[in-house]
Amino acid sequence: MTGSPYASGWGTVFFVSVAAAAALSWRSCTAPEQHAGRHGPDGEFRAFQRTYLAVYYLAMLADWLQGPYVYALYESYGFSSHDIAVLFVGGFGSSMLFGTFAGAAADRIGRKKCGLLYALLYILSCVTKHYKDYSMLMLGRILGGIATSLLFSTFESWLVCEHNARGYDGAWISRTFSLAYFGNSVAAILAGVLAEAAAELKPLTPSAAGSVVHYGGFTAPFDLSMAVLVLLAVALAALWNENYGSTSSSALAKGAPADTLYKALRALARDRAILLLGACISFFEGSMYVFVFKWTPTLSSGAERPPYGLIFSTFMVLAMCGSSIFGIASASYRAESILLVTFVLAAGALAIPAVSSSVGINFACFLLFETCVGAYFPAMGMLKSQLVPEEVRATVYNIFRIPLNLIVLGVLLNSLSQFVAFSICGAMLALAGLCMRALSQMHVHGYSVRSGSDPSEEMDNSI
C-alpha cells in the first residue's frame, strides 16, 4: 500500500485500540482492591507478583523474538515450502511426543529446574538456526518443541504452587494472570520491533566461503533471543525457589516421571471436570492456531496489501484489552462464566469469515477474536489453578496440549480453504462453549475443586 499505514483506516483502528487498552488497563488496576474483600493484596504479595512476572515476561519475550522469522529464515536458506512445512511438523510433533514427559519431569524434579532447562533447550535451538543444514535445523525444531512444552506448563505451575504455598488469598491470583497476559501482549509488540531492527543490521552471510554456518540477517533475532534467555536463566536462578508437584520430599524421592504421568492420566480418567477443561483448551487453542495460519491470506484478498506489522500490533493491543476486561470482570464473575461468554463471542467471530469476503468485516471479526484471546488466557489460568491437582499440574497441562498439537499438525499437512478453516474454528469454539456450559453446571450443582475434586482426592489417597 502507498503512504504511511498509520494515516489509513488501519492506523485509525490501531490508535483507537491503544486508547481503549489504556482506559481498560487503568480501570482494571482498581478492580482487585475494590472487590477483593476486607484486605486487598499487600506489599509482600506484590513483591511476589513482581518476582514471577519478571521471569515470565523474559520467557515470553524470548519466544516472541523468534516467531516472526522462523519461516523467513528457512526460506532464505533456499528450502522449499514442503521442506519448511516438514520442519514445522517436526516442532509440533516433538512438543506432542516429548512434552508430556517434560511436564512429568517438571512435577517430579522441580519447576525451577525445568524453567532453567527451557532456557538451555531454547538457546541450543537458536544456535541451530545458524546452520544451513536441514538435519541441524530439524534438531533445532525438536529442541524448540520440547522447550515450548516447558514454557506453557512449567512457569504457570510454579506460580500456582507458590501462590498457594505462601497462603495468599485464592482470588488474588486472577490479578497475577491478568497482568501476565497483558504484559505478554506488550512483549509481543516489543519483540516485533526489536526483531525487525536486529534483522536489518546486517545481511545473511556465510561465516566462510562454502560454509553452512551463517550469521546476520534473519539469524539476528535468534541471537537476540539467546541473550534474553541468558538473562532469564540468571533471573530465574536468583529470584525463584524450587517447588514440586508434591510438598512431600519423601514422596518426591520415591517416584519417577513415569509415575507422575500415570497419576495424571488416572486423574483425567476419574475427574470429568478435568476432561471438560482439557476439551475447552484444545478446542479454543486449536482454533487460535488455525487463525494464526489463516488471518494473513484472509486479509490479503483486497486490492492493496495490508500493513501486516501494524495489524499484528493491533491484534496484540486488543489482546491487552481482553486481559484487562478479565481483570475487571473477575471481581464479580466466576472464571467459568467469563469463559462461556468468551467462547460464544469467539465462535461468532471466526464463523463469519467462513462466509464473508469483506476485508473490513473479517478484520472486525479478528479484532473481536483477539479480544477474546486476551480474556481467555488469564481466565483459563485461573480455572486450571482451581481444577488441576497440584502433584500432577505440569503433566496435565502438557497432556492438554496433545490434541492441540494434533489439530496444528492437521492444519499443516492439509491446505484448507478459508471456508473450511473458519467453519472448523466456529465448530470447535461452539463445542468449547458446550463443554464450559457443562463444567459450569457442575459448579452450580455443588462440584468443589480447590484441591482437585473428590475423584482427585481419592486418587491421592490411593497412591
UniProtKB/TrEMBL annotation:
Subcellular location: Cell membrane
Membrane topology, record value: Multi-pass membrane protein
GO BP: any one term: monoatomic ion transport
Superkingdom as given in the UniProt entry: Eukaryota
Transmembrane feature ranges: 6-26, 47-65, 85-104, 172-195, 215-240, 273-296, 308-331, 338-355, 361-383, 395-413, 419-440
One Gene Ontology molecular-function label: molybdate ion transmembrane transporter activity
A GO-annotated cellular component: plasma membrane
Pfam families registered for this protein in UniProt: MFS_5 (PF05631)
UniProtKB keywords: Cell membrane, Ion transport, Membrane, Transmembrane, Transmembrane helix, Transport
Job description of the protein: Mediates high-affinity intracellular uptake of the rare oligo-element molybdenum.
Name by which UniProt lists this protein: Molybdate-anion transporter
Organism: Diacronema lutheri (Unicellular marine alga)
